[in-house]
Amino acid sequence: MTNYLSDMALFVEVVRAKGFRRAAEATGIPSSTLSRRIGELEKSTGLRLLHRTTRKTELTEAGQLYFDRCKRIVDEARLAHEQLGEIMAQPTGLLRASFPVDFAITYLAPLIAEFAQQYPGITFEFDLSPRKVDLVSDPADVAIRMGEPEDSLLIARKLTTFTAQLYASPDYLARAGTPRVPEDLAQHECLGMLKTNSWTLHSSKVTKTVAVKGRYTLNSVGMMRRLAALGQGIMLLPEGIVLDDIAQGTIVPLLSEWHGTPQPVYALTETRLLPARTQLFIEFLRNRLSA
């Protein structure tokens, strides 16, 4: 039974690493040994679990079903082991997280540094990407995302809510004029996200949707901030992402009584059974972001 459970754990590592070579690097076990152990597991189940080629390793249909069950068993066993040790000691181990690029660099980096100083036994592996993360197959313990979660199967913990404001550079306003009401935005260069041709703005009692246009549409908040600072137009972004730009005076707020639709920030996990380090990280961000 001990070898059986151990082989299940190795199988999960191979799938998560998307191949024997990367799994060998992660576990310190030679690829040949991993291959032999998975082969023994396939013999014991009587089913082919992996399609192996020289270029990639993929799950069979049976392998996918087996992985879904094994992963939960392995995670719960690891969690039980870790929590026993963490009752008496500081949390340790690798914390793997996925963040939106600009939000992480601008807003989360100082918080992460503070958390790391508080818990020196934790190491970190970060994926800074706007892509949708598959927490079942990707090696991430938690994903921080802005906006309502698309995947209802994930566990979503709300961290805070950000509200977007309008900003532009002093150079742009000197050249193009300052909008006084939302309708004025239709006559300005607006830096819009891809597939967005209108902005919904709210005041204390009124909501207005304004058609916007401009020479630039893009999917990078960092590029949008840079273009705005260079006088290329007006942008609608949460204040938390542009704090450095405001402090440096490269952009200034506009129409301060108007704001965009509030946008929630969530920590997404695949399960409620989390290692102590992941639980602590989520709670730390929630406390700091909501302060």
Features:
single chain; 291 residues; alpha+beta; Arc Repressor Mutant, subunit A; D-Maltodextrin-Binding Protein, domain 2; 3 domains; three-stranded antiparallel β-sheet; 9 helices
Overall description:
The chain has 291 residues and is of the alpha+beta class. The chain folds into 3 domains: 85 residues, Orthogonal Bundle (Arc Repressor Mutant, subunit A), CATH 1.10.10; 92 residues, D-Maltodextrin-Binding Protein, domain 2, CATH 3.40.190.10; 98 residues, D-Maltodextrin-Binding Protein, domain 2 (3-Layer(aba) Sandwich), CATH 3.40.190.290. The strands form 5 sheets. It has a 5-stranded mixed β-sheet with strand order 4-3-5-15-6, covered by helices on one side. A 3-stranded antiparallel β-sheet has the order 12-7-13. A 3-stranded antiparallel β-sheet has the order 10-9-14, with no helix packed on it.
Write the layout of secondary structure elements.
Layout: H1 2-17, H2 20-27, H3 31-45, E1 50-52, E2 57-59, H4 61-86, E3 93-99, H5 101-118, E4 122-128, E5 142-146, E6 155-162, E7 164-168, H6 170-176, E8 192-193, E9 198-202, E10 207-211, E11 217-218, H7 221-229, E12 235-238, H8 243-248, E13 252-254, E14 259-260, E15 263-269, H9 276-289
Parallel strand pairs: 3-4, 3-5, 8-11
Antiparallel strand pairs: 1-2, 5-15, 6-15, 7-12, 7-13, 9-10, 9-14
Helix pairs in contact: 1-2, 1-3, 1-4, 2-3, 5-9
User: Which structural class fits the helix and strand makeup?
Assistant: alpha+beta
Q: Which CATH architecture of the largest domain is right?
A: 3-Layer(aba) Sandwich
Task: State the end-to-end distance.
Answer: 49 Å
In terms of DSSP E residues, the strand content is 15-25%
Question: Rg to the nearest angstrom?
Answer: 24 Å
Query: What kind of assembly state do the chains in view correspond to?
Result: single chain
* CATH secondary-structure class of the largest domain: Alpha Beta
What is the count of helical runs? 9
* Helix-strand string: HHHEEHEHEEEEHEEEEHEHEEEH
Low-confidence stretches: none
Q: In the CATH scheme, what's the topology name of the largest domain?
A: D-Maltodextrin-Binding Protein, domain 2
Count of the separate structural domains? 3
How many runs of DSSP E, i.e. beta strands?
15
The main pleated sheet reads as: 5 strands, mixed
State the shape: elongated
Helix content: 40-55%
Largest sheet: spatial strand order: 4-3-5-15-6
Mean pLDDT across every amino acid position: 87
